[in-house]
Amino acid sequence: MNQPQSSILSRSFSIPVLLLLFFSLGCNHKTKKDEMNAVEPISYEPSWESLAQHEEAPQWLQDAKLGIYFHWGVYSVPAYGSEWYARNMYIPGSSEYKHHQATFGSQKEFGYHHFIPQFTAEHFDAEEWAVLFEKAGAKFGGPVAQHHDGFAMWDSKVNPWNAASKGPKKDITGELSKALKKRGLKLITTFHHARNLQRNADKPETWDGYDSHFPYHPDYHTSSNDPELAQFYGNIPEDQFYENWSGQINEVVNQYQPDMIWFDSWLNFIPEDRVKQMCADYFNAAAKAGQEVTIGYKQSDLPKEVGIQDIEQGGRRDITERPWMTDITLSNKSWCYIEGQTYRPTSMVMRNLIDVVSKNGVVLLNISPKADGSIPAEQREILLEMGAWFDKYGEAIYATKPWDLFGFGDAKAGEGTHGGQSSKVHYTANDIRFTQSKDEKSLYMIFLGKPKVGDKIKLRLLGRHRYTPHSEIQRIELLGTNQEAEFIHGHDAFELTIPDAPMDEIATVFKLVLE
């Protein structure tokens, strides 16, 4: 049947119009996710209010639980005393002062900078180090980019005293950054150079003041007027020092894009405006690159909303709402390599790490390479033993969160040297720590040792009328085996019977599978 001409024209006109309207609406329709992705990166201003808008501890850090860094530099050459040799060799009466004179001669003739040519790093292999960090179970790692001594461990245009142009003549930070990132590890660079300025250089009577790393003394190289030596020893005007301080941080950020920058206190000695500008520059660079970053700090050097607080060689006594960090070292005597160094047993390192994780913390573990770039066998052994434990029980650590209670036990924690509790607590199988999966479907019960087969572990606080898992316990597994454990979950107490199965001397994990 023929249609009227007007009807045909109307239909032929309406179809293209409708199609055009459909595609127009379709192209303009954006989901909330599209709109969020289309938003320009936030721009941070150098004010605490603006900087507080940045996430203090990104999820990758909270999930990582373990990072590795290292004290390695010019101070590794004398291999005596500690990484503070650079300062202490100039302090009359100190063991380093006496050792230096007996071994290298007068400080007037042989200054700290004379060690630099001996910092050769000929055995440094970034790929090998990155593999070792990964095998140890670390999820991030990196160098002490610059210690108090002012020697930069990267290819620097700001600081002529750097590893790429002197000593090793290698871009240590650059090589390691590539090797770590290739393996999916995040990069941390730590800065300790706020102490380097000789703040009392114009007051000879206070030349040994603690607020300067290198003591001022008119007879030593530390007070040299040579422009390069003056910069190295911090004997320069404050404005120049502060410009160099921030310039070096910006240089590392721009050249290597670290996922975390971390400061070894003394930010309170840097003008506040410079600190705020440094934070803003870092956050803005990361936002532009789509990178989730964070800043580590000590004491009260930054507002708690701006970064993650670190307690040196210490821990918390209970769970904290905010994530936190602790930096600890494998060694007993020094953070850097020294002759005759002794080490903490793997069990102590791991048990204290588990305690930290149970309380919402992250561990930054220090190792101590030799001046030639080799990592001592004793340290390698500890790291590999840690990795073997993580291979079996990592599920109870990585990407977990604290439970309602951190745990129970007999161990008494002493006071930490820098606040909090000690990082050298002697835990045993009588001490238990808890973590849980993010979806709260698994609760991990970690014995900090090897419980005895057949023992019945009775915990009143886990009774149904007290602290109890958020849903019913379906079964309990000895992690790393197919062995299930018998249990009773009564109103007055929870009781676990230790099964006859292989358990770990370092720490044994039971997984409570919940409904």
From TrEMBL:
| PANTHER family reported in the protein's UniProt record | ALPHA-L-FUCOSIDASE, ALPHA-L-FUCOSIDASE-RELATED
Glycoside hydrolase family 29 N-terminal domain: from which residue to which, for each copy? 39-395
Please report a single Pfam family linked to this protein: Alpha_L_fucos
**Record family assignment:** Belongs to the glycosyl hydrolase 29 family.
UniProt GO cellular component terms: lysosome
Give the protein's recorded name.
alpha-L-fucosidase
| Alphabetical keyword list | Glycosidase, Hydrolase, Signal
Q: What is this protein for, i.e. what is its function?
A: Alpha-L-fucosidase is responsible for hydrolyzing the alpha-1,6-linked fucose joined to the reducing-end N-acetylglucosamine of the carbohydrate moieties of glycoproteins.
Return the broad EC class.
hydrolase
- Species of origin: Marinoscillum furvescens DSM 4134
| Keyword Electron transport among UniProt keywords | no
Which Enzyme Commission number(s) are listed?
A: 3.2.1.51
Which InterPro entries does this chain map to? FUC_metazoa-typ, GH, Glyco_hydro_29, Glyco_hydro_29_N, Glyco_hydro_b
A GO molecular function assigned to this protein is: alpha-L-fucosidase activity
Biological process (GO) annotations held by this record are: fucose metabolic process; glycoside catabolic process
Reading the lineage from the top rank, the first entry is: Bacteria
